[in-house]
Amino acid sequence: MSTVAPALRAAARRAVALPEAALLAECVEEFFVASGPGGQHRNKTESGVRLTHGPTGVTVSATERRSQSQNRGAALARLRERLAVMGVEPKVRRATRPTRGSKERRLGEKKHQSALRKARRDWD
Fold first, then answer.
1. What is the 3-state secondary structure of the chain?
2. Do residues 54 and 26 make contact, with C-beta atoms less than 8 angstroms apart?
3. How far, in Å, CA of 32 to CA of 74, rounded?
4. pLDDT per residue over 67-93, tens digit each?
């Protein structure tokens, strides 16, 4: 699990709450030729969209559509998802010890299995 600096986590949480236009204004938008199925229109036009969010450095791209505007919407949705994941603070895990009852149950099960194996061995 990667650790995210608290400042980046706060920037991600703030960015997720922004309206679409404001979030897009914080991003560097690049257009490129997206290869793949879609024919001549897709292979000759710069319909691929890459968004880089400046404050957090998160980069996403979308190339699945033939339309640049549809790819921009898809990339923006991906960026929101990635920022939302980045903004979540992981729960602190504390080491715990097994209870006496769980130890006894585990050892009892081991003894039971051992007895079954011994009984199979002695049956012959």
1. CCCCCHHHHHHHHHHHCCCHHHHHHCEEEEEECCCCCCHHHHHHCCCEEEEEECCCCCEEEECCCCCHHHHHHHHHHHHHHHHHHHHCCCCCCCCCCCCHHHHHHHHHHHHHHHHHHHHHHHHC
2. yes
3. 15
4. 889 999 999 999 999 999 999 988 888
CA proximity to 8, closest of 40, 53, 73, 42: 53
CATH number of 6-87: 3.30.160.20
Domain boundaries, the chain: 6-87
- CA 42-44-48 angle, to 5 degrees, is 55
